[in-house]
Amino acid sequence: MTQLTVTASPHLRAPGSVRLIMWLVVASLVPAFAGSVWFFGWRALMLTGLGVVSAVGFDALAQKLFGRKVTVDDGSAVITGLLLALNLPPAVPWWIPVVGSAFAVVIVKQFFGGLGHNFVNPALAARAFLVVSWPGLMTAGWLAPRGGNLSGIDGITGATPLAVLKNASEIAGPGGDPAGLLAQAQSWPVVGRLFFGSVGGCLGETSALLLLAGGVFLLVTRLIDWRIPAGYIGTVLVLALVLPGPKHDLLPYLGHHVFGGGLMLGAFFMATDYVTSPITSRGRWVFAVGCGILTVLIRLWGGYPEGVSYSILLMNVATPLIDRFTRPRLFGRVKKATG
Amino acid sequence: MLSFRGGVHPSENKHSTRHLAVETLPLPPVVFVPMSQHIGAPAKPVVEKGAEVRTGTVIGEAQGRVSVPVHAPLSGTVTGVTEMPHPLAGNRVMTVVIESDGKDTPDTGIGERAADDFTPEQRIEAVRAAGVVGMGGATFPTFFKLSPPKEKRIDTLLINGCECEPFLTADHRVMLEQPAEVVDGALLIARALGVENLIIGVEDNKPDAVETLRRILPSVSDGAQPCSIRILALKTLYPQGAEKQLIKACLNREVPSGGLPMDVGCVVQNVGTAVAVRDAVRFGRPLIERVTTVTGPAITEPKNLRVRIGTPVKALVDYCGGYRAAPAKLIMGGPMMGIAVASDEIPVLKGTSGVLALDADTAAELEDHDCIRCGRCIKACPMGLAPQRLYYHILRKRLEAAERDHVLDCIECGCCAWTCPAKIRLVHHFKFAKSEINARKRRAG
Ligand code: SF4
Ligand code: SF4
Predict the structure, then answer these.
(1) ipTM score here?
(2) Which among A11, A113, A225 is the nearest to B329, CB-wise?
(3) What average pLDDT does range A37-53 have in this prediction?
(4) Which residue in A62, B23, B282, B338 has the fewest CB atoms around it within 10 Å?
């Protein structure tokens, strides 16, 4: 008789693995990535490619340096590179995604012990780092997307729609017509363009539709908890509805909040990052609602036109605390009567 | 649908044996009967080498309060009373080896129908003397559960017909083939306990068993019902058959953390145990055989078998056509909670609900990964624990923290480890932590 394995139960495991999960998340980002190439041409391909390749490369390098097992085939660095690139303005220079990826995987991830130990989302932290270090590059550089034109881009820089909502009078300039600008921004065609993707923004946040496609994929495969996007987007919607704001036409205004400014990207792909979000269902509700509140507050009253990435980062930091107060409910938690 | 919170749904894999009638394994030439087949103090051998025994002769006397006697599973000659490694625990325990004379001559009085008028005390004594233990795998002495302390009022008897472990179909077949015995046994226990409610809980993947039991009910209880009887179909969800989860599903009562079913007025017994109780009370038959499922990808022809306690597992496998592929793992019980053993020469015990043989593919040890905090283990845990948190505590050797986070409430059901995408051997760590904590407590007095 051959040698029998003797190990603890259970003796069978569910199908699936960390690697499979990560690669499926990569797959869910493919539509948004393809969209960015469609809208912004080779630039998008180049920036994303650089982001992914350097994330994987630095990840492997860091794992070697720290004497860990090299596990870049688990796909997590690919996700980081992709998410980082999708969060960049299209006109940034080539080295931005490289520096960003290096920061994300080496400083944010491997310094803290590798996948599973980082406490903030590496891609978002890297983006914040880039914004602080090179604010000029990271907050300008918006290009008007032009579908289907791979070789060239218009090079028109314009204000993103949420920036218009926020700073209509400044953008209109002295003697301009801020009300007209708002009215124009809050029209159905503009919201439609926001949804389908012909309004300026980061590489990956242009088309809400393509992000939604990936998000729905993640929901049906149950890779992400529906509570996070539902709680996040729902909170943004409700707060946008009840809080005062430059509401010219209500429904398109709400459309801006939901489909604009990377909310789709954030709610489906970044707030749902397992490692940096709470682990219980209740905790995830708290987290999602928190993200929503912060996002709207930043959008309406903060110093930036956009609040998604900072909101998620802040909630990442709060996650251990949320975890502590949202433990699962113990079966039979009533203490046994003494005696 | 009646159920509990949490749980997982692994592939049931019951198709290969669920339709197969129980076959009786021919008497083996020799049986090995360990004196410890129940939770509690091992029995003390009372036969010597060379002694002639009959089927049902007491060969081990109960020792201590929580203990039961052990009987000769067949007639023949005792060829050894020695220490052997326990089949599951590995520690050395006294084992009686009996060579069969092939006649299976019953000991005096066994098999004769007893009179119908018992006092509850007589009934409980009959169950104790017959060496009946929980046959779902827990092997807690049954008589002990039937004599709860006076201050605990027991109002409900639950008979567990869930058989929620994948692959196993022994209980299913017992319910289909011996429904009257199951109900009769259940009623005997119900009378001994004096309960108002009797519930037989069956997972709804066995509609035929629910149907059969419901059909047989009127003829067995024939009007003289001591209590209300209900057969409940429960959601097919692992571990529906775990005591606390079963009570929750059937009665919506939660056994308190660290407590026992009797703390919420319940006693739970497995369907196989009910039949054993009936045999003991009505016919004075000791527990010397059981139904078990021999199955798994490495078994040529999976079957449900009625086998004598002490029969080497190899004899069961041979009867099932041997191994189809080299077995890589042999498990006593089901895939979720069963215990992996090192050899097929070990004997069948009172608690052996199944023998599962995995081939190299299915037994492959998966490489583990760092926890990615996906939260699946928490969703799956039927005890409301946070396995991921416990795991971190244990990795950092913080057993006090693990205890504070209720690791002692872990029922080792395996849901967390089954579902973990990082393939972390969570249950392995919890078993270790529990035994360490318990050992420390014992040392501390
Ligand atoms: S922690 Fe224990 S009780 Fe909870 S799922 Fe894991 S093995 Fe089962
Ligand atoms: S299931 Fe595994 S990977 Fe997921 S949180 Fe639990 S221990 Fe971590």
Answers:
(1) 0.88
(2) A11
(3) 90
(4) B23
